[in-house]
Design goal:
The structure is a homodimer of 318-residue chains. By secondary structure, chain A is α/β, with parallel strands linked by helices. Chain A binds a DNA duplex (30 and 30 nucleotides) through helix 3.
Chain lengths: 318, 318
DNA sequence: GGTGTCGATACCTTGGAGGTATGGGCGATG
DNA sequence: CATCGCCCATACCTCCAAGGTATCGACACC
């Protein structure tokens, strides 16, 4: 179906030397062997490539066309092995992975172990950055790969949406919203939720959930990390929304906290892995996305019990 | 030294399916056979292309790079055989060959026979055109290949200089220059040579020969073809310069003509084969140039006796 | 814990690529 | 004009490497 690269080498050699014997010498094979391979290349499409014009052979028009393409192919093939050999053995570079702070503490630890196992020759550097900073670094090329939550401005980037993780309401047991009763998104409208500091996308997402029902939450205090946020809830300052992947790490028994999932269309956020459209490692990053997606299945399985329907971290198909 | 195209197919199939078994099915080989070939591609440069991550295999960074290049190679290879197969059997197009009038009657007949023998599947259309018209057609693409004499403006063209053919003085036996005596270029300076019509490069070349010695020839009559020119010389109107390749056809015994070569640095003209730099058939045209050069060796051998040193049509190396 | 799937390994088989010997055609040479 | 020599094609043989079958080990899912 396809000619061999070696056969193409023979054809090019004949074209360049104008002789079968000389070409055979150059290719370090016997002349009959070369003749036979050349003939096969001619027979495959049923075309004469060479005009046997003593005392030399000349190219036919198709021959010229084929030889031109063939030498291009050979050059690219040689480049391929060269590029591959260049990155043999040695460290195959370091990938700078940017992660937003509301994902990093929960998504990363297990993931990095998996990645190191799969790609031992690659280094991974982690940068914890807020969404807009992460996007700047991604576009500037100081970060290669970004793990963040939608929505964001994705021009110049491409990637793969991994999972939708639902939000879970976390409230002090003493809080009105803490009473064990079914809740809906509308129930948190106007509630005085504790929020992340300005600049964290989780803050905007929480506000969004409330805004859906009309009223943005009025709040006075804010936290710089999810962990702090939970401590504040623990202190009875008010309820908050947590992404499901944070529950296992942040909820401990005997904290006086109630976690409750939503009954209706569960609010949630989409986590996505992004890279520059121009990145040469797109195909590889796709694979990392797959690993990440599976990693979130593990996180889903490790999720603690909450009141209401069990929140599901839902995989998205590529 | 180089991977097989088939091996690259296997690698690409594994990358696309993410499975060895599925890839083997797609390639219509057994799974162990495919595994082995993939391993060889990995061993050649000493690189891991795939991370065996159950339940699928993932690309490594080098793997992604290699697979990208490999699929490009495969696409080009398929295109190569497709292009070749498309021009199989059927007529492989027609080459429009432009020739200047002072070459055509002498250079062409034998050449066409040779070309038809070498390239039976190609048609040759001949266009007899003066240099400047020929150049216009060449650049416009209405002529593919031009056979002409230097000098000319060759921008946008490339080609191969074939031969230098000397000029020979042809004079009536009764003419002063017809006396059997050694002549030099200086002897024709100021001579009243018969010339071709304006527009024929042979006219300019003859004038050049005279101008070298200082004085352009003063002449009153001119001819539209070399044949007419010789008839005029025969009528005693004066001498002229002929290119050596025309002698065999134009000089017959008993015409009362004397042909005489030059003693010193023989004046002559360089014949060249030209085509557009953008032509995809450059490599083929080179071959046609070779055939043409050899054809001129035949013409040289067929040259009749002339007074003075035997004029030599001299081959130029490519 | 049984079962199924996937990739790796071991061993055998065979087709095709390569080598040697030889033939035919053309050009060069004396 | 006969001979030689060069170049490409053909014929036949050899052998390696690509492919197939059988099997194993690992992991996932019942």
């Amino acid at each position: 179906m396809l000619p061999t690269l070696r056969q193409l080498e023979y054809v090019v050699a004949v074209a360049e030397t104008g002789q079968f014997v000389e070409a055979a010498r150059r290719c370090a094979v016997s002349q009959p062997a070369l003749s036979r391979q050349v003939r096969e290349v001619e027979e495959l499409p049923g075309v004469r490539l060479f005009a046997r014009a003593r005392p030399r052979v000349l190219l036919t028009p198709v021959g010229a066309e084929v030889v031109g393409r063939a030498s291009g192919l050979l050059a690219q093939a040689r480049e391929l092995v060269e590029v591959a050999a260049a990155s043999a053995g040695a460290r195959q570079g370091t990938v700078r992975l940017g992660v937003i702070p509301t994902i990093a503490p929960y998504g990363l630890p297990g993931l990095l172990a998996k990645l190191r196992g799969l790609f031992p020759e690659v280094g991974f550097a982690i940068h914890e950055l807020q969404t807009h900073v992460l996007l700047d670094h991604l576009r500037a090329g100081t970060v290669d790969l970004g793990l963040l939550a939608r929505p964001f401005d994705d021009h110049g980037l491409q990637g793969r949406d991994l999972v939708v993780e639902p939000f879970v309401l976390v409230a002090p047991a003493t809080h009105p919203l803490g009473v064990p009763e079914a809740i809906r998104a509308a129930d948190v409208a106007g509630a005085s939720l504790l929020l992340m500091d300005d600049g964290h996308c989780l803050r905007d997402q929480a506000i969004d959930v409330c805004a859906v029902a009309g009223a943005p939450p009025a709040t006075l205090v804010s936290a710089a990390s999810v962990s702090t946020l939970v401590r504040m809830v623990e202190s009875g300052l008010g309820p908050t929304l947590l992404p499901a992947s944070a529950l296992a790490a942040e909820l401990r028994p005997g904290q006086g906290l109630v976690a409750r999932s939503f009954l209706d269309a569960q609010p949630g956020r989409t986590l996505t892995l992004q890279w520059r459209t121009t990145s040469p490692y797109g195909a590889w990053f796709e694979g990392i996305g797959t690993v990440l997606g599976e990693h979130y299945l593990d996180l889903d399985a490790a999720m603690p019990e909450v009141a209401g329907p069990r929140p599901r971290i839902r995989m998205l198909e590529p």
